[in-house]
């Protein structure tokens, strides 16, 4: 019943299979506790395989009552509890041959000597998923096993945690075909004797331990091993000159992330069956041997990144036509993209970034990558136009070169376009807006211009939009708000004008759905490649080492990486973290108007930069809703009013800058994060007061109105009143006199009006008063 996608719980009627000798339920979706009582009635069971389901709970204790059991595989579930040495020891030592307890959640201390008397035992695999399991092989000291193993995998299980020694019982093993001690903390010299004592050994995986010294193989031994992985250790020195002659059948060699140095020996070309060669993250130097690129024609993966190799690698001797992954980045390679590369057709990854290569990019470059492939050529000296042949590529990184001309309108639906730091001109072509699969567009630091077209809303799957450092102008169209999946947007250092769209709160900016993660890559079943941060090539040989072809599952450790300015520095975000990082940068433009209060609804945004614009008005009270904000920069605007005291609730804010505005009033209390902000966060605002500023609020009040503390609000300052009255009086009569002097007609009219007023006053007021006075005098 294996691999049938069955789900639900196991039927309690499994006891009806009392006569069954083999049960295989592997690679289904069964879940819940396994019915232990029913299992324990299967007395005739010989093979029991429930691997890679979703069973949980405690491992049934009565499993040791099945005396005929030969194969026990419960790997890939969620069984918990202590891995009992007594349980394992009680399995019938005369029948059990195969035990796989890997990828569960066991914990506690397990003594491997429990297997000592299991004479038929051939395969033991215990690979922990939670790092809480400790396996000890040296207790008691000097025990001697009755078994001869063919496969032993003790991965990520704190093997011999106290001493870090490699298990000593291995000195008595001579039939091993597979050894995997990866992800432990074993130390000492490389155990070359494992290869010498076990002539049938095909796979040796010691990655991510602490082995040191030289990687040396005895030249008198002809070693038949197919895969060696000692990556992530502390091995050093040079590779021995005859390494290729000692291991002619080697198909996978991974010695990355060590301290090897010097030139590569030319005998590496004698590994004529080599499929994977990973020398990355060492200190190798010199030129790549001609023998490697001309004789290792079966190479599928060649990884030389992060070394000190130099010279021209794409010479006429380059004959690696089977390559699917080529990583040469971060070396000192020179030369051009020779036509010898045009014979490649199935490249999933072509990475020559961070070198000193030059010339133009040929039109056939897009033909070497398969559909969904990755092309990385950043940080070189390539020039000329971007060719049109980049079709069906997943990721294109041509950033930091000297490419010029317009963006090609013929880019065929890539998901990630990285073109930062070139000399590109023109506008964003309309044809590019037809790419609904585009997730990242980075064209910063170029000479692009024009306006943002409303068609930008067609980028429905866009997560990162980086247009900073160009010459874009015009208003920010509201159609930008239809890009609801955006996490990072940088429109800084352009000439955008107008107001900030009020609809920005419709964009996610950090509000993610765990089912919609774009950059937290996992196994891609469509392509057969593993996309992750680590590179392991050793999964491939156990079941196929007798064949002439090794079905290699290759890693993919080129993760999307972008830079974004936050907290006053440019930080690099790579891989899955991009799903969780969020920010909006509109700084250094010509934006006007007020700050939309709706921005306060961006509760998941980490960085907001509106500095160096012409914004006016108040800081919105609703900014207290920026619950996840870490950096808020509103400096160099014309904002006024007080800083909302409610911002003190923003507990994650590490940077706050409102310098050089027209703010006034008391600075928020120095509590929570505001207790960490220095006066530079507030400088350039004359009427702000309170700690950490030197100006006390009483001092600022006196400067604004010296007697404010002694008067009521309705009292008038006499000095101010008379001064303003006098100035007004003088200005009014000066204007009247000027008009009368310039215009004779109005001057005559004015004199006539005055004369009429005088006559009217004499007859209307003075004459009656004179008559009244005479009457009073008579009496």
From TrEMBL:
The chain crosses the membrane at residues 720-742. It is a single-pass membrane protein. This is Uncharacterized protein. Keywords: Cell membrane, Glycoprotein, Leucine-rich repeat, Membrane, Repeat, Signal, Transmembrane, Transmembrane helix. Belongs to the RLP family. Pfam families: LRR_1, LRR_8. GO terms for cellular component: endomembrane system; plasma membrane. It comes from the Eukaryota. It is found in: Cell membrane; Endomembrane system.
């Amino acid at each position: 019943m294996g691999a049938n996608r069955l789900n639900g719980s196991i039927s309690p009627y499994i006891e009806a299979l009392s006569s069954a000798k083999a049960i295989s339920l592997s690679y289904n979706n069964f879940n819940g506790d396994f019915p232990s009582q029913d299992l324990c009635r299967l007395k005739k069971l010989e093979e029991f395989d429930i691997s890679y389901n979703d069973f949980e709970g405690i491992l049934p204790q009565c499993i040791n009552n099945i005396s005929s059991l030969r194969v026990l595989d419960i790997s890939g579930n969620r069984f918990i509890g202590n891995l009992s040495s007594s349980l394992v020891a009680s399995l019938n030592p005369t029948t059990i041959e195969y035990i796989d307890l890997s990828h569960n959640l066991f914990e506690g201390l397990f003594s491997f000597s429990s297997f000592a008397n299991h004479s038929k035992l051939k395969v033991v695999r215990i690979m922990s998923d939670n790092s809480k399991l400790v396996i000890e092989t040296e207790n008691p000291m000097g025990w001697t096993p009755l078994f001869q193993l063919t496969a032993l995998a003790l991965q990520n299980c704190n093997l011999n945690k106290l001493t870090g020694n490699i298990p000593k019982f291995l000195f008595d093993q001579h039939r091993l075909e597979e050894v995997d001690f990866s992800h432990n903390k074993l130390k000492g010299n490389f155990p070359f004797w494992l290869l010498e004592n076990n002539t049938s050994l095909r796979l040796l995986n010691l990655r991510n331990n602490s082995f040191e010294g030289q990687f040396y193989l005895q030249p008198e031994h002809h070693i038949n091993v197919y895969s060696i992985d000692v990556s992530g250790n502390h091995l050093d020195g040079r590779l021995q000159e005859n390494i290729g002659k000692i291991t002619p059948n080697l198909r996978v060699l991974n010695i990355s992330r060590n301290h090897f140095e010097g030139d590569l020996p030319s005998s590496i070309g004698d590994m004529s069956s080599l499929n994977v060669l990973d020398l990355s993250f060492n200190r190798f130097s010199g030129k790549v041997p001609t023998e490697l690129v001309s004789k290792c024609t079966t190479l599928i993966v060649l990884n030389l990144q992060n070394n000190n190799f130099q010279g021209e690698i794409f010479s006429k001797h380059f004959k690696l036509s089977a390559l699917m992954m080529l990583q040469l980045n971060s070396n000192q390679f020179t030369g051009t993209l020779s036509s010898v590369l045009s014979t490649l057709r199935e490249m999933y990854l072509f990475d020559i970034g961070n070198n000193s290569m030059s010339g133009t990019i040929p039109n056939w470059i897009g033909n070497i990558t398969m559909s969904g492939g990755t092309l990385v050529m950043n940080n070189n000296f390539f020039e000329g136009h971007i060719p049109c042949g980049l079709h069906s590529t997943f990721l294109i990184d041509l950033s930091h070169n000297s490419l010029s001309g317009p963006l090609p309108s013929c880019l065929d639906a890539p998901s990630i376009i990285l073109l930062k730091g070139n000399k590109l001109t023109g506008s964003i072509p309309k044809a590019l807006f037809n790419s609904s699969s585009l997730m990242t567009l980075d064209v910063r630091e170029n000479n692009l211009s024009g306006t943002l077209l409303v068609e930008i809303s067609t980028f429905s799957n866009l997560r990162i939009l980086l247009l900073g450092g160009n010459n874009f102008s015009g208003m920010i169209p509201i159609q930008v708000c239809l890009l609801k999946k955006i996490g990072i947007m940088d429109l800084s250092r352009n000439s955008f004008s107008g107001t900030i769209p009020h609809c920005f709160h419709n964009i996610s900016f950090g509000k993610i759905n765990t089912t919609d993660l774009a950059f937290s890559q996992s196994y891609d079943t469509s392509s057969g490649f593993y996309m992750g941060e680590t590179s392991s090539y050793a999964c491939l040989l156990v079941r196929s080492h007798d064949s002439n072809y090794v079905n290699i599952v290759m890693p993919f450790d080129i993760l999307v990486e972008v830079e974004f300015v936050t907290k006053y520095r440019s930080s690099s975000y790579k891989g899955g973290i991009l799903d969780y990082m969020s920010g909006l940068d509109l700084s250094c433009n010509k934006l006007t108007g007020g700050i939309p209060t709706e921005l306060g609804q961006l509760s998941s945004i980490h960085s907001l930069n509106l500095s160096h614009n012409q914004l006016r008005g108040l800081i919105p009270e609703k900014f207290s809703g920026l619950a996840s904000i870490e950096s808020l920069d509103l400096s160099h605007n014309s904002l006024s009013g007080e800083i909302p005291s409610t911002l003190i609730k923003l507990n994650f804010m590490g940077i706050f800058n409102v310098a050089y505005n027209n703010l006034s009033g008391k600075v928020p209390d120095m509590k929570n994060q505001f207790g960490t902000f220095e006066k530079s966060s507030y400088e350039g605002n004359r009427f702000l007061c309170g700690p950490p500023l030197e100006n006390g609020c009483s001092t600022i009040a006196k400067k604004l109105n010296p007697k404010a503390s002694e008067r009521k609000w309705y009292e008038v300052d006499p000095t101010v009143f008379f001064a303003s009255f006098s100035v007004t009086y003088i200005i009014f009569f000066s204007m009247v006199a000027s008009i009368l002097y310039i215009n004779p007609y109005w001057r005559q009219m004015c004199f006539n009006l005055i004369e009429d007023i005088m006559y009217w006053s004499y007859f209307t007021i003075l004459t009656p008063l004179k008559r009244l006075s005479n009457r009073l005098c008579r009496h």
